[in-house]
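Protein DMP3
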Amino acid sequence: MDMSLRARSTVSKQASTSSDASQIPLLPTNNNNNNNNLVPDSSERSPVPRPSVSQRALETTANLANLLPTGTLLAFQLLIPIFTNNGSCDTATRPMTLILLALLAFSCFIACFTDSFKAPDGQIYYGLATFKGLWIFDYNAATASGVPSELNKYRVGFIDLVHAVLSVLVFVAVALRDKNVVSCFYPSPNHETKQVLDVVPIGIGVICSLLFVVFPTRRHGIGFPVTPDRR
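Predicted structure tokens:
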């Protein structure tokens, strides 16, 4: 009787020991395999898409907006959505938008003929460059601060005319890249018109960027930054 009880207790202990051992999770035996599973393979990573040539050209055209007068560019960004009704023009808003674009283009043209000088007291005064020299806007205040003796060196030159034309072309390129302007004048363009609207601003941007480098200017008129060592 005692032997049978001992045998049963021994069998039950062995069964419980085996069941407990089966519940213990097995530890990994190969560390290299686990490390390979944790670290992703560099060959499986998707390559980063590079910008296309057209995207780079559009970025270059967008950067040309920095060559426009700050006030004109700000007025364009604020007024165009209002005048075009966010691109939904009608018979009344379309002529108004055209007149606004003409005025902004004229402001870009005339701003290239403005210049500035720094008085001895540190005040900056602006004027309009003419064929005889600089016509100062606030002449009385400039006289009190100190007007440069040689105003004829500010007279209009050939480079001023080149920059004025280039500024108008840059403004046209920026306007053609604006979705509200395009939707206003070309709500449903055909394939040929869409190609022209995509190619013309890029061509204007590339040509104007080259001409701005070939014909640099020293003028810092209205809407353009003035360097500390300005004349």
